[in-house]
Fold each of these.
Amino acid sequence: MGWLSKIFKGSNGKVQEDQFYNENSENQALDDPSASGEEVWNQYENEDIDRAIALSLLEEEQRAKQLVVDHESQLKEDEMLARSLQESLGSASPPRYEYGNGHKSQPMFIPYPTGYRICAGCYTEIGYGRFLSCMGAIWHPECFRCHACNLPISGYEFSVSGGYPYHRSCHKEHYHPKCGVCSQFIPTNPAGLIEYRAHPFWDQKYCPQHEHDGTPRCCSCERMEPRGMGYVSLDDGRKLCLECLDSAVMDTNECQPLYQDIQRFYETLCMRVEQQVPLLLVERQALNEAMEGEKHGHHHMPETRGLCLSEEQTITSVLRRPRTAGGKRTMNVITEPYKLTRRCEVTAILVLYGLPRLLTGSILAHEMMHAWLRLQGFRMLNPQIEEGICQVLAHMWLESQLKSSSGSSSDEASSSSSESMKPPRRTRSPFETKLGKFFKSQIESDISPVYGDGFRAANHAVLKFGLRRTLDHLQMTGSVPC
């Protein structure tokens, strides 16, 4: 040890002038007549030992201070490493990140002692070197990766969704809604929020400006026309999407089997329509002209779709299916005049041409209920009551069509012999089934006082008392039972 060597060096019996003895104590030892030479020597030797011990303790104290300085230097070095990493990323402050809702935040730097920094990506010790402190954890820079593309995130900002980090571009691609019309990302409003419009039934989101920029809607399903997918233009100015066109009824002759199907539906309810009421498919202009002289009709929507006539009129009927030119526009609609003579209370049922089969059928079922009520002597009914019960019959027919498309083989086996004479059921596509559910939901969610509130009141009575009792009460009192 160092202090032993100092003792041995002091045992040569010589006293140097630069030793740590003060002059008084040295002279006092030399002048003392009673002190022998050996005592004087022992005194010098003890002082030499004390001095060596003091030097050794001083070195230990300096070594302890050096350890403290080294620990502080390590912490400073860690902070310098973090700052150098941030500078290498081109930023002057810790990286910011945003959550799925778009809020940004700055993570706090957490200095971990050496040996306790564990990477949250590879779960190994980080030790000395570059590291990131993000999302409440420590990462190797190469371990902090995007959950979508699995590439390291080296940018100044990143996003967090579901507890996973994303590049901002990847997060936008996966979570930012796109417009169903222009296929672009829906822009944010001045408040920084994503604002879009959406149809209440169809899963179609679109930019708000498309409601005012002339983007056409399908006259049947009400979906907006996507760019690059041209809707078919009918001669009366309406637009029809290709999926609705697939099951559209385009002329009077084509509609006759559907008309007969609805007549059979009324017969199963013991509500046979005794008179053979003419059915005509017409253009919008002819339907609007007929509506001017008839108060009863399925015309509460933006345009008239059906009408039950009870006066003598001459209307123009679509005689032959129009030809589609270039897949985008129908042409050469052939029409003929048809004179309606008044031989009874009901002269004809008019329905707008070019609508899908299920929508055409629901309009027919509605208008046929108007005809049945008049032929059965129901007089001067309140419009809300009459339109409400007609909507109930349209809703019931749609419901029967949707059930028949998913009917089991046991249901078919239990059908009567008279039903076996019916034409075979046509195959219905998944879209047509969904379209039927849309038409059904339109009736249920109608907010108009006459058709919407009228349907809900009449449907409640039918569900509670049955159709026959409801109609009997309606004929006697002019109101639906409560």
Note: DSSP finds 13 helices and 20 strands in the chain.
Amino acid sequence: MSRQITQPLNQVRLTNVAVVRLSRGGHRFEVACYRNKIVNYRQGTETDLSEVLQTERVFANVSKGQFANTKLLKKCFDTADEEEVCRFILDKGDVQVSDQERAAQLENTLREVASMVSEKCVHPATRRPYTMAQIRDAMKAAGFMVHPTRNVKQQFLDCVKLLQKKQVLDIERAKMRLALVLDADVDGDIAERREKATNLLVEEGVARSDIQRPDDGDARIVFQADPSLYRKVEGIARDSSVQGRLEIIQQCVTEEGDVTLGSELERRAQQQQRQEDAIDGDANNATIDAFVASPNDVQAVSEKLQSTLTVKERSPLSDDEPSKKAVVSSRKAQKAAQKKSKKAKRREKEEQAEREQRVEAEKARQKERAERLGIDDSKDTAQASVGGGGGDTKPCNTCGGAFTPGEYRAHFRSDWHRYNVKLKMSGAAVVSEKEFLLCDSDALFG
């Protein structure tokens, strides 16, 4: 008599389950959902409850399969409609995330933060971004930990501050290229408004070397500024004395392309030129301010200029002294480099002579050994060359012989080949098969 296999028809197996839990009125309520649907439901992209829930029932414990009591639902939620209670739990409840899901979320957040740092930060000197691998290693060395719920941009700012504080990397935020365009319809001199805007930018922290020198009559000021100064610069553009608008030309100013000697020299020359222009501008402004502050003291200014000219006439060689010192220091450096190069050449010659002596001593030792054993090396060499010329043989680069395909594998397992490999690794000359058969290791090195 065959036995019938009975299976429960009302059993629902919950696979790929994510539990949303809510505590209310001192009791715990849970619903079983699909892992990839809870976020979509809360974002509003998924509205069908059957696509979100595994089963439209409210549980007291999902893992044990215990359903919630209807009287308890009525008491805690003021309704016995389980669909409405499920929606309330989905909106207000906490998602129970597994360890693997939590690790995946943290890894995604860490990758996003590292990508943002790589895109928006550069090296202060070269103005080139770091790679993702360098950023990840620096974050690990600095001990940066991501937060699962905080905003990625805020964590990016915290990460940059931590890297700068720990001095793991020479890093800073990439500057923005902005343009302050003055309104042409406003009454007033464009040059005065432009000068006023430039002074306000410098006061707010914009380096004068990062401000491009505009042409005469140009109502556009192009400059580079740190992203943290954007709100202040926007306030300057709205100032009543400036009356302009702010335009973003480039979000992140970085150097692109391969690093070459010409490009690096050109970059340094441009940077030095900008610094010199900024120094000249500051000096001119200081001179103008001093002159405006005391317009009536012309006699004192003229006397000061006259005394300066007298001092220069008395010491005409004073300006050349720094240049002479620089020339002398450069000559000393050249002499020191020449001395170092001579020492290096002498050391190389001595090492070469020592190597040649060792080679000659090794050849003499091999010749003396061959004479003592009565072995003719020329015959072995000729036999090896003749044997290696065949098309069906394979040569051994270590021992120097040639073997048939059947003997080739056996030769590599032989003691002769293994011994020659040891000699070759120790820097000694290899031996022929006759020498290996006639002598032991003590005789070979004796």
Note: The longest strand covers residues 17-24.
Amino acid sequence: MHQTVDDTMASQSTKNQTTDEHVKTSQRTFVIASRASKLAQIQTNIVRDGLEVAFPSLSFGTSFMSTEGDKNQSQALYLLGGKALWTKELEVALKENVVDMLVHSLKDVPTTLPDGCEIGAILERENPVDSLVVKQGLPYKTLEELPTGSVVGTSSVRRVAQLRKSFPGLVFLDVRGNLNTRLAKLDAPDGPYTALILAKAGLVRLDMGDRVTADLTAPILFHAVSQGALAVEIRTDDQEARELCKTLTHQETLWKCLAERALLRELEGGCSVPVGVSTSLSQTDESAGQLTRAYLTITGCVTSIDGSLHVQDTLAQEVESIQGVEELGRKLATTLMSNGAKAILEDITQDRRKRATESQTAE
């Protein structure tokens, strides 16, 4: 049986929020691990630095490794399957006590985790939008300005599906690799790409925000579930790590992301399924650093691969707990499914299986 990430965090929210004095004097060196890319290392250092500020007497180290998603750069993400591509090898090291914490982009984390693992912290979210990045030297400032037939690079089926709906004259081409690699492919004089679509948060964290040509916001492009947020994964039996992580969690980000993840879990969407969201909180109340009430608005959409079918809806209500936040996300999923999203997702699953079979045959 797999553990639901958000059930774990919900149970944590009812526990004593005071950090155990035993943790403050721990003699352990807590090893924080992530993927080996430059962006992943920067994100890991953000977590390490936050912990060192909160717990200056404790020792923290870092470790980096490649995952299956990093190693397989030839196949489209759409054909490779779910989000465990980015997390599985790391979780093996965590469960074997080789490392103590994993840092992930939360959008890459499955909505259920292996037994023995849980999300210990969700950090404050960067701007979750996607951005247009135009090839250096070209004059275009918006998607609307790109000439018909322009090649736009992205590995995200969600982006392609939504943008095909509004920009049928553009050509979308898969592009893999870390951000530096993708930007090099974009700027190569003989490269095919006119522009790329990238998550703004990664560019900002890499101090490359100046490459953003324009932000692509809803309703043109709804971002991925949990995009822009970092998560720390720990072992469920590691109470010391759990206590440390409490200092990192940003409450508003937590509530927004758990609503989005509940929506995705109900839709059974994976890493390359075109589920888009936009979430906001207002009228928030807090007690002892914890959110106790807020007005939550969440919009979700599911789009067919060719952009011809698009199902979108919005729900909003006052919520008073993580359970209430997740219930609103599930309710939105049910609404979307009844309005046509179920048929779209079934078609996408069949299409992926067909293309994966064709790919294996070709090899």
Note: The chain is about 35% helix and 25% strand.
Amino acid sequence: MERIVSEGGVMELWDEMEEQFRCAGVAAMRVILQPRCLTLPNYQSSPRLLYIVQGEGLMGIDFPGCPETYHAMSRRREREMEQREMEGHSHTVREDMHQKVQRFRQGDLIAIPAGAAHWCYNDRDQDVIAVAVHDLSNQANQLDQSLRMFFLAGGAPRSSLSGQTRRLRGQENLQNMMNAFDPELMAEAFGVPIETMQKMQKQDDRGFIVRAESMRMIVPEEEEEDEYEMMEGEEEEVYRRRRMMRRDRDPCNENGSEETTSNGLEETMCAMKVRYNMNTRREADVYSRHGGRLNLVNENKLPVLRLLGMSAERGNLFPNALYAPHWEMNSHSIVYCTRGEARVQVVGSHGQLVMDEMVREGDMFIVPQYFASACKVGRDGFEFVSFKTTSMPMRSPMAGYTSVFRSMPLGVLMNSYLMSRSEARDMKQMRGQQQTYLLSPMRRSRSS
């Protein structure tokens, strides 16, 4: 893993030339953002899914052509500006306006389309830790399958890049893009003095992440944001009940118009939701009382994922549980371990064991499409987030009541494995009555 140390944090990049990453056509990184620090604006040539492992902060994703819908101009300020314009003052100072800024929290999955400029700011006192996966083989990337990051400011400190990293990733992709343009041309394009452009093009050795103590931006108050966002740990049912009570008390908003809620059908790129919290227990798609739970975020829950062609799954497995053997039918799985440990086995197309290891917090591994995998959880439980290279993933379990063997006739199993009818029946039904592919611990029976 390569580390790029900046003034306000660290970027850690898994080696994309490693066999498992090349097989899946993806790249991965982990970002540590210190308090009161800012990741400089940048964009990538491939879609990116970001999972917040720890902390919270502010993020902006800027879509070209979308209006600046955030502004802080008061009515008094508007009247003053109108008066100045009436008096003939043409050079009035406008308040800042920008596109949407939203708060992210631990457990959020954030979708960033290819080519969309974005930035993050940590306005809290705890480090933000985020893991990102880039789908290099996505059709949105018409370049080669390499991780290409285009920074609009700053750049990687030369001392923090090893020679191998410079050869593999290309140092030109890790520097400020503004530096290469002619300053006079850029000054004319922006309509600013050439001195201003030279300041923007000044070589900066602070890195990708910089300290920003005096950050000011237009952000809704927490109370206003909670009208549309569920606070971390709040149950969805309670959230909906609170909204209904507020609507009953005040059927009209401050503008006198009836309050309506979004149904998601009229979403456009400018207003599309780009994040989803995966820590909500009530949102679990699979739950086993003794096995654990899985939260899957696909294009149905987060429509922007249809554009990215990606999705993610959050797993919280209980101690000694078993994630039954299965294979992914239409995607690769890039798995990052967030807590605990587990033994993972992966079997390839020729029946060979390609992985049999204990994985722990901070580890990442890949299960290629159609490769079968199983996971035995340790004594302290196991939590993970799995990134998928499709927006609607499908799996085929080998055990549980949705098992592929459960759908086969007994005769097929008896002749395939040279077993008796009772053994074939046990294989189909012992785990197939009430449990899915999240299986509770089971004692081994002694052979007679």
Note: The longest helix spans residues 236-249.
